[in-house]
Specification:
The protein is α+β, with helices and mostly antiparallel strands and 488 residues long. The chain has 11 helices and 22 strands.
């Protein structure tokens, strides 16, 4: 055989090998999908060594699929690139009227800037600044300015009927403490009751404790046996807790979202203001104060205190490590808010347009991309495995790669990957964003293989049995860590 024929034969073998590797799953991944009852046409997979020109594995890679929370990678990468890692939101306190001897004959205005993590503790810092400026008594109203974001006219429970769960909280320009209260459950066997603690404890929250102490042993999924019902009665929010709680569960924190932003902010404000020794209510110009209302501050209002948020780099860590939906939605709307000049109430539609413009600037063509709220908590959002893989490659070569990389959960170490792949070679070597909805399961991120090579990995599943896909996903990550040897 001539030398040139040997070269042609080798090239043909190489081409066949690449084609084989490009569209066929590793045997253990294929078997895990079969065991889960998930057909190959219900998945999209993209695996590429970042140093190579073509992917090693691409199965249904151009098919648009629901990515669940891996969509947060689009939002967080866009935000880091457009706003910068040091970007911070501002929450401001302003006053009108007159301030004499600690008495404000006027109103206190709270202007929300969209801070995704304005916690109870941070809000207390803002009010302490107001007190430090000499305000002891407010004889006007608390006035809320939430105009930075357009109102979201959607019930929190519309997605899955679980409106009291914090992951369903709606975005708001004045999002305080994720609109949630943490209920501390403290079983008392000797009194046959469950004692409650609240943080925060809004002054207008009425808690009705109908919880009973169970007689059995063990704990299990204690939340599934409990129920929270919320009703409004004028200015009062009534929270009724019922169900059975096992004493073996010990003390647990139950986070419950309250639906009404103004009432919630008003109640927490009154609680904290009283704790700080302040007084609220009185008369201004013959009008009785001490209520809440909504309005932008007048032009002559004076700023007393400004509270900056955590920097964006830290916010992105919370969003991706723990897959925080409402924080992702706040960030998504911020992209619209910062793209407008002059500013107007931010909408999800303009946020999506901002992302598309940014993608074009980055020369990332993702024609299949469908954005609804940027968090992945959606039945409409779509992206392909290849599209998400190309986004990861772009991020790897960007100036904000370190911030994005450090925000991703590390296999067997932290975040939503903390309990996965322990006692496994890939443990600690993969930075992976996870996603999960009913009928959807996904992973996307980076793997450092045992040879020191970095890979982009995306695995999307859209199928009724998607919840059982974890074994296949973990097998793929292990295979990539081993260097992505050709399937057998």
């Amino acid at each position: 055989m001539k030398f040139i024929d040997l070269i042609r034969l080798a090239l043909c073998a190489l081409a066949a090998n690449l084609a084989y590797a490009n569209d066929r799953l590793p045997a253990n991944v294929a078997q895990a999908l079969k065991n889960a009852g998930i057909p190959a046409n219900a998945v999209g997979i993209y695996v590429k060594n970042l140093a190579d020109p073509a992917p090693l594995l691409a199965l249904n890679a151009q098919t648009p699929l629901n990515p669940a929370s891996t969509m947060k990678l689009v939002t967080t990468y866009a935000a880091l690139d457009l706003l910068g890692p040091a970007y911070a939101w501002q929450t401001e306190a302003l006053i009108d009227g007159t301030l004499v001897d600690g008495v404000l004959n006027g109103n206190l205005y709270l202007r929300g800037g969209g801070d995704p993590k304005l916690t109870y503790e941070q809000f207390g810092r803002l009010l302490r600044q107001v007190r430090a400026h000499g305000v002891r008594e407010i004889r006007g109203d608390l006035v809320l300015d939430r105009s930075a974001f357009a109102a979201v006219d959607v019930e929190p429970g519309r997605f899955d009927g679980m409106g009291v769960r914090p992951y369903n909280a709606m975005p708001d320009a004045l999002l305080l403490n994720f609109k949630a209260v943490a209920v501390l459950l403290m079983p008392e066997r000797e009194n046959n009751r469950i004692k409650l603690g609240l943080e925060p404890a809004p002054s207008n929250l009425d808690v009705v404790n109908q919880l009973t102490l169970a007689n059995g042993r063990g704990c299990g999924d204690w939340k599934e046996r409990l129920r929270a019902d919320i009703a409004r009665q004028g200015e009062t929010i009534r929270l009724t807790l019922s169900g059975s709680y096992q004493p073996d569960c010990g003390e647990q924190r139950w986070n419950i979202a309250l639906p009404d932003t103004p009432q919630y902010v008003f109640g927490v404000f009154r609680q904290l203001w009283a704790e700080l020794g302040g007084q609220f209510g009185g008369q201004v110009g013959g009008q009785v104060g001490g209520n809440w209302r909504e309005s932008a501050p007048p032009a002559d209002a004076r700023s007393l205190a400004t509270l900056p948020s955590l920097p964006l780099a830290e916010i992105v860590r919370d969003i991706n490590k723990y897959s925080n939906n409402v924080m992702a939605r706040q960030l998504f709307l911020t992209l619209a808010m910062e793209s407008d000049e002059p500013r107007r109430p931010a909408t999800a539609e303009r946020a999506a347009a901002t992302v598309r413009t940014w993608l074009a600037q980055r020369k990332l063509s993702l024609p299949e991309l469908v954005l609804e709220n940027g968090s992945g908590l959606s039945r409409r959002e779509r992206i392909s495995a290849q599209g998400l893989g190309r986004l990861l490659q772009s991020a790897w070569h960007s100036a904000t790669m370190p911030e994005l990389m450090s925000s991703l959960p590390v296999a067997a170490t932290d975040g939503t990957m903390r309990k996965r792949l322990k006692q496994n070679g890939v443990a600690g070597q993969a930075h992976i964003k996870t996603g999960s909805l009913e009928g959807v399961k996904s992973i996307a991120g980076f793997v450092l293989d045992q040879n020191g090579q970095r890979w982009a990995v995306v695995f999307l599943v859209n199928h009724a049995n998607a919840g059982a896909a974890q074994a296949a996903m973990d097998a793929l990550l292990q295979w990539v860590w081993q260097g992505g040897r050709n399937p057998e």
